Amino acid sequence: MIKKIVTKHPVIVYYIACLLLWVIFGLTNMALFPTSFNYELVFPQWAPAFAAFIVVGISGGKTGILGLLQKVSIKKSSIKWGLASVVIPVVCCVIAYIGIMYTEFGQCTMPTFTRSIGIYAICFLATLFGSYGEEIGWRGFMLPQLNKKHSLLMSSVIVGMSWGLWHINIGRFGLIAFGLFILGLTCISLLISWLCSKTKNNIFVAIMFHTIMNFCTLLLFENVLSDFSQMQTGAHIADMHLYTILYGMYLIVFAIPCIFIVKNMSGKKTKTKNEYL
Questions:
Q1: Opening angle at CA 218, ends 90 and 174, nearest 5
Q2: What gap in Å lies between CA 126 and CA 211, rounded to an integer?
Q3: 232 phi, psi to nearest 5 deg
Q4: What is the model's pTM?
């Protein structure tokens, strides 16, 4: 009975499992390892991977799980696009930083780095670890499942919206900023999906893009992106304003390269021999 439901509605089951695991992993993280957030080690980022493993395990067994993991392998044909997955987020994040500095402060100053090189190295590895977990689910499982019935463009939009809503950060960002956050992630989803399509659905490029984007955000906007506990002060409204400016700028900057790829994505569907991937 369960296998029949999972096989018939893999994406719906996956997303429900993803949300439930987000809550479970989040509560566990806060209860047992609350200081891990200071080093960008966020266990709920592995909720998408485990949700994918559950769905694929029920539907395809061990073979399906192994097939999902094989999508992460680094191939020579992916190196060129792997480089693009590093350059694009770096350039976009830097442009967003410059834009915010001029619009909010009237001048561009260097970002302030408040941590040691060693701590930043730990943060980078933690970011890579978290991105690995997310991309196994979003681009490794959900995207190709949707792409069987929809174009790559439509599939990427659905993944992007789902990815954004999964973060459930209305209380932290405010409604307007959260809406901009979701739209920005949808543009980023288009870019990542396009890169994945160039590597025959190898999600190594997705992991790199995700990692570099998150790490650049930490480096450039660390003083803006204060944690939730710090936002319970009188500066809460000001912080929400900065989140609105940040995600609005991200939406504009990441939407620009999307203009050049959406036409190429509109008719692409996945052709795969593996029913579960």
A1: 110
A2: 9
A3: -90, 35
A4: 0.89
